[in-house]
Amino acid sequence: MSANEAKLIRIKDVIAISGLKRSTLYANISKGTFPSQIKLGERCSAWVESEILAVNQARIAGKSEQDIKELITQLKNQRQQNCFQ
């Protein structure tokens, strides 16, 4: 998915897609095993849907926590690169 096609989703949808509780989701973000949110405003955040789906696929495939951390790093780098295309 290109930067022009990236879909942003809110916390309710992230919870539904990931199956994680809100507290677990934020704990995983802190550990580096879940994509971080994007601030849309002072009190508004969203996530890139394709990043959430990529992490779900990695978990389904049985990837280790270290593998998922590496995936998160790759996704962050792609996010920054796509920003200027």
From TrEMBL:
Pfam families (UniProt xref):
Phage_AlpA
> What protein am I looking at?
Transcriptional regulator, AlpA family
Organism, by scientific name, is: Nitrosomonas marina
